[in-house]
Write a structure and sequence with these properties.
Blueprint (H helix, E strand, L loop, with lengths): L2 H11 L3 E7 L3 E7 L16
Antiparallel strand pairs: 1-2
Length: 49
């Protein structure tokens, strides 16, 4: 199972996931997260009226 499938399964089963990523500013960051959504960041796509 790849990371994408694992993340989607965690959303469906409402499980915690450990996320590890490399930030340019802070280096490697690890978080314990509750995934509740997957997709592009919606706030950046909203038009300002």
């Amino acid at each position: 199972m790849d990371n994408h499938e694992f993340f989607l399964q965690a959303i469906n089963e409402k499980k915690l996931v450990h996320v590890k990523f490399n930030s340019q500013e802070k280096g490697i960051i690890q978080r314990l997260c509750v995934p509740f959504d997957f997709g592009p960041w919606r706030q950046g796509n909203e038009s300002k009226s």
